[in-house]
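TL;DR need structure tokens for one chain.
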Amino acid sequence: MYKFFVFLSIILLASCQSPKSEATSSTQDSTKVKIHKEYTVDGKLHSKLEVSHGKINGWATTFYPNGKVMTKCKYQEGIPMDEETMYYKSGKIYRIIPFKDGNKHGWL
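>> reply
TL;DR here they are.
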């Protein structure tokens, strides 16, 4: 989880725009999940996290200013599961990073 937030912080600094935050709640699989969204100063969605019990539980997604997905990774109890997919601004896959036991496990 720490690595994701460091990565997210770098992306925020690189965009040179201060995000606004918003949290909403929804129910998934009988568990209360908060959807945490961050927006750029001009109102564009920058990131969306599914959070429960203070940890990312579900999808964590960051977006380019054009609205396309930048990164997407599924988490369980704050630990990355399976793989993180990174995309070019065009929407094509740039890199897939596999995870094993919450740690990067090679590059595809």
